[in-house]
Amino acid sequence: MASARLTRLVYVLYIGTFLSFLYLPLLVVALLAFNANPMPAFPWKGFTLGWFGEVFRDPLMMGAIGNSVLVGLGVVALSVPIGVAAAFLLVRYDFVGKGALYALVLSPLITPGVILGVSMLIFFSDLGLQTGLGTTVLGQSSFIISFVLLIVSARLQKFDPALEEAAQDLGATPLRAVWRITLPFLRPAIVAAGAVAFLLSFDNFNTTLFLIGNSATLPIQVYSAVRLGLSPKINAVSVVFILLTVSLGLLVEFLRREERRPASRPEEMLPWATAGPVPVPAPAAAAPSSPHDR
Question: Which residue of 56, 127, 236, 258 has the lowest C-beta tally within 10 Å?
Fold first, then answer.
């Protein structure tokens, strides 16, 4: 009994220490973002929203936020279609070298961001491309595609191909069957992959640092501002980013729960099944039987 209590106490202390180490810095940053003290430190000198106003009045910070949004949207637009297509290729088809291709597609996940950024910088320089938002989108997409592939392929592996076959038996073309049956089934995973891709892009620092050129995204701008000295504006920006992260995380969790919910109505899996009766040709007149038919 005593040993069980001691084990439980150690477990609770360990979990409490871990959660405190993980979330206490975020709580301190959030509190200081609303502190009227011009120095980003305690003691508490009153509640204020002025530091958020300072952020929105800072042209450099707002420009960095705009660049982060543009790069994030570009990464989503590029990585999601490619990741979905790669998921179809690697899940639906068997071919020589499939395992090697799968490992190659996932290799950016284990490649350090600094190495990836330097490699992409050398590659774009050899091609004569000027660094900027475009090269940043391409560089980030090179590894974010792997995350999209993992998310979508996990959902696609749960799909029953018999549903597509049933749609084709009812007259749908293969492309229409994929469009009306498979893609709606994958929609939660695709939206979740897009949210994860945007968040990874918005938060990326290592690769972006080498490819952004003279521009700056939000992580780069915050890094430059911190080098010049701490400011309550940094805390305000951190709170905005935390809220964005939490919002997208909740969206991904909601979509994950939707993935687990089974279809309760036939039209959820076959949207066109209730559109109307399927015309069935009249049966041909029965021909007289002959000994050769038996």
Answer: 127
Instruction: Note whether 190 and 152 are within 8 A (CB).
Output: yes
Q: Where are the domains of the chain?
A: 59-265
- In angstroms, the CA 168 to CA 225 distance is 59
Stretch (H or E) spanning 144: helix 133-156
> Quick one: DSSP state of residue 292?
G
Identify whether the C-beta of residue 112 lies closer than 8 Å to the C-beta of residue 206: yes
pTM: 0.78
| pLDDT, one tens digit for every residue, the chain (294 residues) | 677 788 888 899 999 999 988 888 888 888 888 888 877 777 788 888 888 888 888 898 899 999 999 999 999 999 999 999 999 999 988 888 888 988 888 888 888 888 999 999 999 998 888 888 999 999 999 999 999 999 999 999 988 888 888 888 888 888 888 888 889 899 889 998 999 999 999 989 989 999 998 888 989 988 888 887 777 888 888 888 888 888 887 877 787 776 666 544 444 444 444 444 444 444 444 444 444 443
DSSP string, 84-118: HHHHHHHHH---TTHHHHHHHHHGGGGS-HHHHHH
Q: Within a 13 Å sphere around the CA of 173, how many CA atoms are in the beta-carbon half? A: 3
**Minimal CA–CA distance to 134: which of 86, 70, 180?**
70
CATH code of the region 59-265: 1.10.3720.10
